[in-house]
Design a protein that fits this description.
One of its GO terms (molecular function) is structural constituent of ribosome. The protein is an alpha+beta fold. The protein has helices at 42-46, 95-98, 118-131, and strands at residues 30-31, 39-40, 88-92, 108-112. The chain is elongated, with a radius of gyration of 22 Å. The protein starts with 29 loop residues before the first strand and ends in a 17-residue tail after the last helix.
Length: 148
């Protein structure tokens, strides 16, 4: 297993997500435009949108209101884009793309793309073990021997 090159601690200035303004007012918004469909949109109400109202307390940054994301919440330049395992992510679709990480196995880890078949996944995981490359989702969609 490759040891990560990054030794400094990864510090996030803010871990909590930024809530959408007034998202607490609309807990269960339902779509009723299509017959026989009742869909709850809780996730869209919590995803961030910039408030644009002329009287919006959030936009005017009143004390005690919902915080807005800005440039000051950015991560340290040396640790930006690093995963908690102290590697950067590189999406791999086949074995030949995995070969690119051969010399950079202490900085980058491989992540197998979602549309790669089970057969190719096995090849990628085997080759990654030979090249000493960390694979973040190596157990995804791999069947056990009893299923086959």
């Amino acid at each position: 297993m490759a040891v990560p090159l990054l030794t400094r601690k990864i510090v996030k200035k803010r871990v909590k997500h930024f809530k959408r303004a007034h998202s607490d007012r609309y807990i269960g918004l339902k779509l009723r435009c299509i017959p026989n469909l009742s869909l709850t949109l809780n996730s869209t109400m919590t995803s961030w949108r910039r408030p644009k109202g002329i009287d919006s307390r959030v936009r005017r940054k009143f004390k005690g209101c919902t915080l807005m994301p800005n440039i000051g919440y950015g991560s340290d330049k040396k640790t930006r884009h690093y995963l908690p395992n102290k590697f950067k992510k590189f999406v791999v679709h086949n074995v030949s793309e995995l070969e690119l990480l051969m010399m950079h196995n202490r900085t980058y880890c491989a992540e197998i793309a979602h549309n790669v078949s089970t057969k190719k996944r096995k090849d990628i995981v085997e080759r990654a073990a030979q090249l000493d490359i960390v694979v973040t989702n190596k157990l995804a969609r791999l069947r056990s021997q009893e299923d086959e």
